[in-house]
Structures are given as structure tokens and as C-alpha cells.
Write a structure and sequence with these properties.
Strand order of the largest sheet: 3-2-1-4-5-7-6-8-9
CATH topology of the largest domain: Rossmann fold
Number of strands: 18
Helix content: 25-40%
Distance between the termini: 35 Å
Largest sheet: 9 strands, mixed
CATH superfamily of the largest domain: Vaccinia Virus protein VP39
Bound molecules: S-adenosylmethionine
Structural class: alpha/beta
CATH architecture of the largest domain: 3-Layer(aba) Sandwich
Number of domains: 2
Strand content: 15-25%
CATH class of the largest domain: Alpha Beta
Number of helices: 17
Radius of gyration: 27 Å
Length: 507
């Protein structure tokens, strides 16, 4: 989320590049020598135009902008400059560009700007393989299409395109038809007045040139302030180069993700054709009643949601072992409230504090009357033995046991498949380990643990003796977690086992 979330900013995402170091670095990367045509597809108040004019005498600039107020400012600044053309148009919609192409494009596009449902529909139609909700990817792809052969573009955008599943289409297009010259990563607070909770920022430079399979490009990281950005235009850049990414390698990664090999063992684990969580476990999302205020109750120990949720009476709770014959059609007696495992980052064991109405009438409501709002999804896993990982982590990934209970849609349920049923404790420990956290955060840099990412985590199997040792240690920590919260020190022994399996300490 963007810290400054005013309505105006929601609509246009108008964060201006009022940082000279960022603009001068981007203008430097663009390399505008001689008589080049330049496009700024969302010019705002002209931060890049000013930057370009400071180093080039009369650059030929076409600037698009949608917002009335910004257009007025642009016109007042540049109406006397015949080389600067201001167009008040929506850059994302098909308008008459007369198929003009440009030598250079520079932009700070809106990130996730609001779009009407009709416009989103049209964009989905125009760019079926792209994620139409996130405007920066659409600006990027459209600008790429408007580059002349060997033309160059420089964009400042969130770093989520590197790994997020929904940007797969954008990554594939980049790898197929363009040479990425460089990517620099830095925290969003380099940008005055902006601070994303969910991602960092990046500046990417791209040339319209068909790449060879062996093509590679540098990634820079580790800058401490925006003042260091212009260093990347000099020989000092070597100091910040964390890796070179090769197109052949990126194309082979799951969903062509741009993993950054910060640690060699992660690179090895992700690049081999190793077993993945999805090969040995079913990874699924859980249940939602459609009306928790009515169907969910809490134990008296829960202090959250006291107004919304009634307290459960202990004689209404079904205490049977529901894993023996999962009651998927409901329970027909008065003890018909079943324990449900919910989100929240507690490791190993969450005691039963929440209960769902599982009467036959309630089931009829979830499945029939209210089926549009309710999610009676993946019922074949309800009341089974498995592991629950909250969809969003607070800091590290955490996991707890689903022992014959229901699980709700805010957690991802992981159920070892038939032949791997003996792995439940091993996997429970794994999902609480630092190696697992390093792996999933490389697969996806945000704190999101959706089923798609979890499925891709590589699993290295222990031999039988090691499996027994790990299982016993997990059982010990599990017992402890029923008495108190698990601290980092409780996990030292377990982390050593998983570090050893993945070679995490030696690499
Ligand atoms: C993040 S601001 C950047 C402005 C300027 N390039 C800068 O760096 O200061 C994005 C700009 O895009 C404009 N904008 C948003 N949607 C647009 C669209 N569909 N077509 C053209 N401009 C748009 C906004 O009004 C805003 O001025």
C-alpha cells in the first residue's frame, strides 16, 4: 500500500519524481545524443522534461498526461517550446499515435491507478496475457511497443514484476523480444514522500533488440541513499553489482521469474529439477461461510472481534474425531459447532478458539442458498491431517498443524499426498524453518504465501534416519507450542537440520 492514499492519488497515482538523483540517473541511462525523439507517456508536471532539457539543448519530446491540472501546468511551462508536444490523452487507450515510434521513452508510470470496470475490460482485451489491474506493467508494455528498433526506454517501477506470478506475461515478452540493459533495486523511501509496505522500487533500462539466449544483464542493489544512483553511470557501479541474470536461466525458472541469486544454495535449490512442494502435497485454500457474523463463534479467551462474534457454549462444540468420517453434509445433533483453524502467525499449534456452525441447515446455506458468497471449496481436505500456512506473513513464514479440524480461507492448507503422509511433521518443521522462508521470499519477494508460490518451493528429502530425527524434534517443539509461544531459540536445532539438508550454511 502506498502511504499517501488520497483519492486524487488513487485515481492518477500522481507521485512526481521530485528527486534530482533519480531523474538525472534515468536521463543519463537514456543516452539521448543528437536529434532523438523522446516520449514521456505520463508526464505529470514535467519532472523528466526538465531533466532532459538540462542536458540536451532541444530534445524532441512528446508528453502524454491525463490529469487536467497537470496538463495546465505542462502547457504553462512549455507552450513556447515548439519541440515539446503536450497531449491530454489516456496513454493506455488506443488513440491515434499515427503509429509514430520513438527513439527513447522515459517514465514514472502510475502504480495500480484506479480504472473503471469498462476500461479494465478493454485493457484485458487489448493485453490478454498481462495483469490489467496493475497499470505500471501496461504502461511498460505499451511503451516497449512504441520503441523504434534499437530504441531505449527507462522506467521507474515497483520491483514486483521480478517475481509475481501475475507479471509472467510481461517477463516472457521482455525475454522474447527485448534486451534488458540493467536493473537497479532500492527501497521505496528513496522516492520523497512515498513508502510502499509491500515492495521496493526499481529502475529498468530496456532496448528494443532481439536478445540471444546467452544474453545477460547486471542487477544493482545495496545503495544506501538516492545520492549514490548517479554512481551507477560510472565505473563505481561494479561495487553495487549483485549478479548478472542470464536470459536462458530466467526462461527456465518457474513462470520465468527473475530470482536474484543472493545465496548460492538458493540458486542451486531453485535451478535443479528438484522435487517441489506441489509434487508431494496438495496445496489448497480453505473454507468461508459467507457470513461469519452469523456462523462463526469464538471461545471466551478470544478478545478480538468481541462485538461481531458470539461466545460458544462448550456443550455446542463437537468433540468427536472428525477425521475418521469427515461430516461433509453437516451434523444432525445439538453439538454441531466444529473447530476451525484461522489465520494469524502462530507457529506449530493453534489451539481451538474459533468454531463454525456445521449443522445440516448451515451446510445447506453454504452450499446452496448462499453459495455465491460462501466458499465451500476443497471439502475433500476438511477435517484431515495437514499444515496451515497463513496467506500473509507478518515477518517470516509460519505454519501450524491442522489436526482433523476445518481451516479457513485466510490460510493455505498443505496436505501430504498418499505416499507422503509420513512427511506431515517433517513439512510442519520445514514451513517454520529459515531455509523455507529464504526460498519462498526468493520465489516471491512480497509477504504473500499464496498456494501458487508454496507449490513451487523445492523440497530436499532426508534419508530415513534423518527423517526420524527431524520428526522427533518437530514433535518436541509441537508439544512445547501447546504450552507457550515458540521463540527463535526453540528452533535452533530444527533450523540446523534443514540448513544441513539444503547446504544453507556451507554455500
Ligand atoms: C507517478 S506520476 C509521475 C509523473 C511524472 N512522470 C513524474 O515523474 O513526476 C504518474 C502520472 O501519470 C498520469 N496518468 C495516470 N494515468 C494516466 C493515463 N492513463 N494516461 C496518461 N497519464 C496518466 C497521472 O496523472 C500522473 O501525473
Amino acid at each position: 500500500m502506498v502511504a499517501l492514499a488520497k483519492r486524487k492519488q488513487d485515481e492518477f497515482q500522481a507521485f512526481y519524481t521530485n528527486c534530482n538523483y533519480i531523474t538525472s540517473y534515468m536521463v543519463g541511462l537514456l543516452q539521448c545524443h543528437g536529434d532523438v525523439s523522446i516520449l514521456d507517456p505520463c508526464a505529470g508536471e514535467g519532472a523528466f522534461i526538465e531533466g532532459l532539457m538540462a542536458v540536451n539543448d532541444v530534445p524532441n519530446i512528446t508528453a502524454y498526461e491525463l490529469n487536467n491540472d497537470s496538463v495546465k501546468i505542462l502547457q504553462s511551462k512549455y507552450s513556447d517550446s515548439s519541440n515539446i508536444k503536450i497531449e491530454q490523452e489516456d496513454f493506455l487507450l488506443p488513440f491515434q499515435l499515427n503509429f509514430k515510434k520513438f527513439d527513447r521513452v522515459i517514465a514514472n508510470p502510475p502504480y495500480g491507478a484506479y480504472q473503471s470496470p469498462e476500461k479494465r475490460k478493454q485493457l484485458k482485451n487489448d493485453y490478454p496475457r498481462l495483469y490489467a489491474k496493475e497499470t505500471y506493467g501496461l504502461f511498460l508494455i505499451k511503451a516497449m511497443e512504441l520503441l523504434k528498433d534499437n530504441g531505449r526506454l527507462v522506467f521507474i517501477v515497483p520491483d514486483t514484476y521480478l517475481t509475481l506470478h501475475m507479471h509472467e506475461g510481461l517477463r516472457k515478452e521482455l525475454l522474447r523480444s527485448y534486451e534488458i540493459e540493467s536493473i537497479v533495486l532500492f527501497p521505496s523511501n528513496f522516492f520523497p514522500s512515498v513508502n510502499f509496505g509491500y515492495a521496493g522500487l526499481s529502475i529498468i533500462s530496456i532496448v528494443n533488440k532481439t536478445p540471444s539466449n546467452t544474453y545477460s544483464f547486471p542487477v544493482y542493489n545495496g545503495l544506501s541513499t538516492s545520492k549514490e544512483l548517479p554512481d551507477l553511470l560510472t565505473a563505481k557501479r561494479k561495487k553495487y553489482e549483485i549478479c548478472r541474470l542470464t536470459y536462458s536461466q530466467l526462461s527456465n525458472n518457474p513462470s520465468s521469474a527473475f530470482f536474484l541469486p543472493s545465496k548460492r544454495w538458493i540458486n542451486l535449490a531453485l535451478s535443479t529439477n528438484s522435487l517441489k512442494v506441489g509434487d508431494i502435497c496438495s496445496v489448497v485454500t480453505g473454507f468461508y461461510s459467507g457470513n461469519d457474523g452469523k456462523y462463526l463463534r469464538r471461545s471466551a479467551s478470544v478478545t478480538r472481534g468481541v462485538k461481531k462474534y458470539a461466545i460458544i457454549n462448550s456443550d455446542e462444540v463437537c468433540n468427536d474425531d472428525l477425521s475418521i468420517k469427515p461430516p461433509l453434509d453437516g451434523l444432525n445433533n445439538s453439538s454441531c459447532w466444529v473447530p476451525i483453524v484461522k489465520g494469524g502467525n502462530k507457529r506449530f499449534y493453534k489451539s481451538s478458539e474459533w468454531f463454525m456452525d456445521w449443522s445440516e441447515e448451515a451446510i445447506y446455506d453454504y452450499k446452496v442458498v448462499n453459495k455465491k458468497r460462501a466458499r465451500f471449496q476443497n471439502p475433500q481436505y476438511y477435517f484431515h491431517q495437514g499444515i496451515g500456512v497463513p496467506m500473509v506473513s507478518s515477518s517470516s513464514i509460519t505454519a501450524s498443524l491442522i489436526d482433523g479440524r476445518l481451516f479457513d480461507q485466510s490460510i493455505v492448507g498443505i496436505f501430504p499426498k498418499n505416499k507422503s503422509e509420513n512427511l506431515t511433521y517433517f513439512m510442519l518443521g520445514f514451513f517454520n524453518s529459515t531455509v523455507c522462508n529464504d526460498l519462498i521470499r526468493t520465489i516471491n519477494a512480497s509477504t504473500n504465501n499464496s498456494a501458487n508460490y508454496i507449490k513451487k518451493i523445492p523440497v530436499i528429502m532426508p534419508n530415513e534416519m534423518m527423517l526420524n530425527q527431524i520428526t522427533n524434534e518437530v514433535k518436541r517443539v509441537l508439544t512445547l507450542s501447546k504450552k507457550r509461544d515458540i521463540a527463535y531459540d526453540d528452533l535452533i536445532k530444527l533450523n540446523k537440520y534443514y540448513d544441513g539438508l539444503y547446504g544453507a550454511k556451507s554455500a
